[in-house]
Automatic annotation (TrEMBL):
GO process annotations (BP): proteolysis
Signal sequence bounds: none
Stored InterPro entries: Papain-like_cys_pep_sf (IPR038765), Peptidase_C1A (IPR013128), Peptidase_C1A_C (IPR000668)
Family, per entry: Belongs to the peptidase C1 family.
Protein name: Cathepsin-like aspartic protease
Domain Peptidase C1A papain C-terminal: 35-289, 363-614
Length: 619
């Protein structure tokens, strides 16, 4: 595995003096004894709460020497999460910044698929801000539509069903207030500086030599130790903590790679600390999140012109043709009134019963899995975007995997009390494996997606990222057995055998005959096991023009359903008494209320209370 960073000395890719913008000082620590013996941001202060963000993969959908970009944004995404937790006490859904932005905007200066420099990436982010991955997903190349203009102001884009992509103006950006590098002359000083920085503000970015047999063959489960001297560094990673092995007394760093969760210890490795193993103790960089950024996640500055184009042309899914007369706005789900794409009887595999609830009064007046039981802990997973890198009518796949990813998180939390890093399942798997039966870019059926997952299991996004089409390398064989792949720098992609798969024990649909029964069934299911998947009509003017900040209300009767979303909770407006559903879309965080919307409850708005599907994960 040839890595991205190709220094010829133990420094950074571009060499030279360290660019920095330092405003504050950390507490003066004179000895390692002044810091904890063990520290791991995946288990904050031994509380069971992970404040790190998801492991990513630079090797799919194709290989690219972008480790420098991945390490930079992973550490910074962690620091956003950590800083917000420290300020508010809330554990929110992850913010996953875009490594693709650094590739796009760094290609003429600080980085590309042939290597890059995290120091100058920090400098660029400080000057320009950076969007999240729902604005600009990783494609490991430069998109053909990107112009030669001001890259900083063209970071966020969306696409239409006719293949056009355009810039979303004034998207939500994340900023850093200061950035710098570690200052040291000895390995002991590196340890002191690195541990002080990690402990007080979060993970740091370091370079290392990655071409050793020990590292290339690492399978996880032990501490990497290697006293050989190597020339320079060839890779960039992020250190999230440290520890001491109790049986041997070996000190180690806890390091995140960017090859996916199937690599090493679920994407991580332990390497001996204090001996400059693999030259990992030569350089370190960090950036501090702008304080105002931590609290303010609104995006009122988003251009209404851009949002209107986005919603008019692609609000949710894509299309076959049931919504005739609507032009390109026809959505993916093309029911003529029967609720689900494929119609027919509901496939189900039901093993257990929920507690019997006979009245809505037996359930909480409000419930939101983004704020579990009012604790400030979000048990939902990240909002995703089906409209980039190209538009595809895959709302059915996104709603299915988002609700199931949430339920994995919820079930694990209930079982262990731990709040682990998010598992983000792959909607691309459902596109790849459903194209001959239950779904494609022209629509799909969550019920049969659940059936397929029950039979075959499903991998996460680091195995199979969303590309909104079917990959050219995919053969006509057993799709279930070829879900996970990786690529090399020669352009070859191959299947990984025996990846981690997530499975469901049972699945089914809501059974009801009246709107009141739908509410009762849906709320009972959501409250006890997590978000559900529903279909809706998405071509109404009110929905297409939704900008966030209010409850959607519409008494018009519409034909059938054209879109699929997931309901994560409900509530009642304190001022008006209007009851509502809390619904997640799949058009990215720049849509609606950070990717969500509120819709009036109990009136079958947009035919949303016509069908509901659920699945129970095995954890």
């Amino acid at each position: 595995m040839v890595e991205a960073q190709t220094d010829k000395d133990p420094g950074w890719y571009l060499g030279g003096n360290d660019p920095e913008h330092v405003l504050t000082s950390l507490p003066d620590i004179q000895s390692l004894n002044d810091l904890p013996e063990n520290w791991d941001w995946r288990n904050y202060n031994n509380t069971g709460i992970s404040l790190t963000t998801s492991v990513l993969s630079q090797m799919v959908p194709r290989a690219c020497g972008s480790c420098w970009a991945f390490a930079t944004i992973s550490a910074l995404s962690d620091r956003i999460r950590i800083a917000k937790f420290k300020q508010t006490g809330h554990v929110d859904t992850e913010v996953l910044l875009s490594p693709q932005v650094l590739l796009d905007c760094g290609m003429r200066s600080f980085g590309s698929c042939r290597g890059g420099d995290p120091r100058y990436a920090h400098k660029w982010i400080h000057e320009n801000g950076i969007v999240d991955s729902t604005c600009n997903p990783y494609i490991a190349s430069h998109p053909s539509w990107i112009g030669s203009g001001d890259c900083a102001n063209t970071q966020c884009h969306t696409c239409t069903m006719n293949g056009d992509c355009f810039v979303v103006e004034n998207p939500m950006k994340y900023h850093i207030s200061e950035y710098g590098t570690l200052k040291f002359t000895t390995s002991k000083e590196f340890q002191l500086q690195a541990m002080n920085e990690i402990y007080h503000r979060g993970p740091i970015v370091v370079s290392m030599y990655s071409l050793t047999p020990e590292f290339k063959q690492y399978k996880g489960g032990y501490i990497l130790r290697d006293r050989k001297k190597y020339p320079g560094t060839t890779h960039v990673v992020s250190i999230v903590g440290w520890g001491i092995e109790p049986d041997t007394g070996i000190k180690f760093w806890i390091v995140r790679n960017s090859i996916g969760t199937h690599w090493g210890d679920h994407g991580y490795f332990h390497v001996e600390r204090g001996d400059n193993t693999f030259n990992i103790e030569n350089k370190g960089a960090s950036a501090f999140v702008a304080p105002k950024q931590v609290v303010d996640y609104t995006h009122e500055g988003v251009s209404m012109h851009a949002v209107q184009n986005q919603i008019d042309l692609l609000a949710a899914c894509a299309a076959t043709g049931s919504a005739k007369g609507e032009g390109d706005v026809a959505e993916v789900q093309t029911n003529k009134g029967d609720g689900w794409f494929l119609g027919g009887n509901d496939p189900e595999h039901v093993l257990t019963s929920l507690p019997e609830v006979t009245s809505i009064d037996d359930l909480p007046e409000s419930w939101d899995w983004r704020d579990y039981n009012g604790t400030g802990i979000s048990l939902t997973t990240s909002v995703l975007n089906q409209m980039v890198p190209r538009a595809c009518g895959s709302c059915w796949a996104f709603a299915t995997v988002s609700a199931l990813s949430d339920r994995i998180r919820i079930a694990r939390f209930k079982k262990t009390g731990r709040l682990d890093t998010e598992v983000l399942l792959s909607p691309q798997v459902l596109l790849d494996c459903g194209m001959r039966s239950f779904g494609s870019c022209h629509g799909g059926d969550p019920r049969y997606a659940h059936k397929w997952i029950h039979q075959n299991g499903i991998v996460d996004l680091t195995c199979n990222p969303y590309i909104a089409s079917h990959p050219s390398w995919m053969g006509g064989g057993d799709c279930a057995a070829t879900q996970c792949h990786t690529c090399n720098l020669k352009g070859e992609c191959f299947v990984l055998e025996d990846p981690v798969k997530y499975r469901i024990s049972e699945y089914g649909t809501l059974n009801f005959t009246t709107p009141e029964e739908f509410q009762l069934q849906a709320m009972n299911e959501i409250y006890h096991r997590g978000p559900i998947v529903v279909s809706m009509y998405s071509l109404s003017p009110e929905y297409r023009q939704f900008k966030g900040g209010y409850i959607l209300r519409d008494s018009t009767q519409y034909p059938g359903t054209t879109h699929v979303v997931s309901i994560v909770g409900w509530g009642t407006d304190a001022k008006t008494g209007v009851k509502y559903w809390i619904v997640r879309n799949s058009d990215g965080t720049n849509w609606g209320d950070n990717g969500f919307f509120l819709a009036e409850r109990g009136v079958n708005i947009y035919n949303m209370e016509g069908h509901g599907a659920w699945a129970v994960p095995i954890v």
